[in-house]
């Protein structure tokens, strides 16, 4: 059984802050969805046996309690206003407080805030390292500790690299601002899929665009896309946008040569094959 973590919270009994009281929830997991274990936010649903579900799980299981259905019981979920009100009244410090976030949030905002928080920690992309920090510190760490494991580049300028025959994650680091990008390379039954992510806390639309060219003697393929942000590398990362280089496309050389350019603020993408 997992140990209960303790979390100090403000238990406001009234919207007037003067009437608030402090309490400790000995097991904050009771405020998580019983199915997906993510923090609850309104609307919240409950079955008559006391199982709590978030709105995502409620829709996913067609308004029926998933826990009860495992025991062959078909029980419809109902809105649980008590828990919704409770979530709205509980205030907690941002879970990224230790990384510098000063925000106090209601528990019902925890789920969204964790995704948006600019202090969300990012994981070092080096395969043998478990360092975790905000993006600026991670960039410095990578420059200091893994200097030989990166390819340096400058925004707006083309650079060339060759892919090995196996799946790999290549770390790219910008010359001036030290931001870290990842070139993902994954073998599929159709060929080799490649794309680029930026390591960053914010998961909204990226301000960074990139172009990848794969050239052979007779033709070339190009992907023009925006670099989605990721907080950690789970190899391989392939978003909906990637360049598929068909098997045998570049068969004159033992490795696949790519030309790459990373720039600011390019959000549209285009895949073209020029013959
Ligand atoms: Zn859920
Ligand atoms: Zn149930
Ligand atoms: Zn935060
Ligand atoms: Zn590291």
What's the topology here?
Blueprint: E1 7-12, E2 20-25, E3 44-46, E4 52-54, H1 55-60, H2 66-69, E5 78-79, H3 81-89, E6 90-93, E7 104-106, H4 110-116, E8 122-123, E9 132-133, H5 135-145, E10 150-153, E11 159-163, E12 168-174, E13 180-187, E14 191-199, E15 208-215, E16 220-226, E17 228-230, E18 243-246, E19 256-264, E20 270-274
Parallel strand pairs: 10-12, 14-17
Antiparallel strand pairs: 1-2, 1-6, 3-4, 3-5, 6-7, 8-9, 11-19, 12-13, 13-14, 14-18, 15-16, 15-19, 16-20
The structure holds zinc ion (ZN) (4 copies).
One zinc ion (ZN) binds next to helix 5.
Structure description:
Residues 89-147 form the SIAH-type domain. Keywords: Metal-binding, Zinc, Zinc-finger. Pfam families: Sina_ZnF. GO terms for molecular function: zinc ion binding. This is SIAH-type domain-containing protein. This protein has 275 residues and is mostly beta strands. The protein folds into two domains: 7-116, 2-Layer Sandwich (Herpes Virus-1); 124-274, Apoptosis, Tumor Necrosis Factor Receptor Associated Protein 2, Chain A (Sandwich), CATH 2.60.210. It is 13% helix and 36% strand. It is built from five helices and 20 strands. The protein has helices spanning 55-60, 66-69, 81-89, 110-116, 135-145; strands spanning 7-12, 20-25, 44-46, 52-54, 78-79, 90-93, 104-106, 122-123, 132-133, 150-153, 159-163, 168-174, 180-187, 191-199, 208-215, 220-226, 228-230, 243-246, 256-264, 270-274. The strands form five sheets. Strands 10, 12, 13, 14, 17 and 18 form a six-stranded mixed sheet that branches. The protein has a five-stranded antiparallel sheet with strand order 11-19-15-16-20, with no helix packed on it. It is globular and about 70 Å long. The site of one zinc ion (ZN) has 7 residues, from loops.
């Amino acid at each position: 059984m997992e140990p209960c973590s303790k979390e100090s919270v403000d238990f406001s009994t009234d919207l007037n802050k003067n009437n608030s009281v402090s309490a400790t929830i000995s097991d904050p997991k009771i405020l998580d969805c019983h199915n997906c274990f993510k923090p609850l936010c309104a609307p919240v649903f409950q079955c008559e046996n006391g199982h709590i579900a978030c709105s995502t799980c409620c829709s996913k299981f067609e308004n029926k309690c998933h826990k009860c259905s495992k025991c062959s019981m078909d029980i419809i979920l109902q809105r649980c206003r008590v828990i919704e009100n409770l979530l709205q009244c509980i205030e907690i410090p941002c879970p990224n407080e230790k990384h510098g976030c000063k925000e106090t949030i209601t528990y019902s905002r925890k789920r969204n805030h964790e995704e948006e928080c600019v202090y969300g920690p990012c994981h070092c992309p080096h395969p043998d390292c478990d360092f975790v920090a905000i993006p600026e510190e991670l960039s410095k760490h990578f420059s200091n500790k893994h200097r030989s494991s990166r390819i340096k580049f400058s925004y707006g300028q083309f650079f060339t690299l060759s892919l090995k025959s196996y799946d790999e994650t290549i770390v790219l680091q910008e010359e001036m601002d030290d931001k870290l990008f990842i070139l993902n390379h994954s073998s599929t039954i159709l060929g080799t899929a490649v794309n680029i992510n930026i390591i960053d806390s914010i998961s909204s639309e990226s301000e960074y665009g990139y172009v990848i060219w794969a050239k052979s003697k007779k033709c070339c393929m190009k992907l023009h896309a925006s670099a989605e942000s990721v907080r950690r590398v789970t190899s391989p990362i392939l978003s909906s946008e990637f360049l598929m280089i068909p098997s045998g496309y570049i068969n004159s050389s033992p490795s696949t040569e790519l030309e790459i350019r990373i720039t600011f603020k390019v959000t549209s993408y285009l895949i073209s094959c020029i013959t």
